[in-house]
Amino acid sequence: MPRSFHVHLVSDATGETINSVMRACLVQFEDTDVTEHSWSLVRTPGQMDRALAGIKQNPGLVLYTIVNDRLREQLVAGCRTLQVPVVPVLEPVMNAMAAHFGQKARGQSGRQHELDAEYFDRIEAMNFALAHDDGQSSRSYNEADVILVGVSRSSKTPTCIYLANRGIKCANVPIVPNCPLPPELFLVKKPLIVGLTKDASHLVQIRRNRLQMIARDEDTDYVELSVVREEVATARRLCTEHGWPVIDVTRRSIEETAATILQMLQNHRDGNTPPAGEVAVSK
Known about the structure:
This protein has nine helices and nine strands. By secondary structure, it is an alpha/beta fold. It folds into two domains: 3-113, Rossmann fold (3-Layer(aba) Sandwich); 117-278, Rossmann fold (3-Layer(aba) Sandwich). The strands form two sheets. Strands 6-5-7-8-9 form a five-stranded parallel sheet, with helices on both faces. Strand 8, helix 9 and strand 9 (277-278) form a beta-alpha-beta unit. Helix 2 (45-57) packs parallel to helix 3 and helix 7 packs across helix 8. The longest helix has 17 residues, at 225-241. The chain is elongated.
């Protein structure tokens, strides 16, 4: 039977950072039932008092991202009184950076959400991904950083959106049986072109679910296993013919696929052309 715990996430900003850390760590612990308490935008002593009152009501591990010294000391002292463990998520990294850079951190909360050039690059990349989804706007493919090609339901669109959130301009082009690819795809010089593929059986399952969601008849070659296997094989051959590396995303998360593409993009920009064929992705 799973054991139950309370975990409090205290942040002086939106809590996005600490939530990401929490999720990344929590998946490593099975048979654990965690009740999460979020205390975000804690920027005054009064707001910290309310967070501490909540921690007292449901004692448990406290994780925090607080950059203001006075508020941090208030939280740590309060947790010491309540005898609950308290962990500074950012402090080890901030201290290491301060020592390495020879510069003290500003101690200003929420700076990662300022409307800087990087923010507007992400917005531009998101607009680009939406405008170039599913083979659209082929005339401007050469403006892309990455172009993903693959058969239907091979995670092209969600991977593009994830990369756009990292500021990468990404287009995607479906490989559809008996439909020629846009000629502009074969003329681009700048973008990295990557093929995405999935196990045929897995694709059939995903496609069946998709047809059920949109109330479409499932009696179609779109979900016929032998046809889908040939479709996948044809797409692989196409990528090999044009020297495009291929990533099998069958058992990969969007984040893992995107991380591999980002590594490949860096090599591409450095002039190191990735070899054609399937890319080995370490777990």
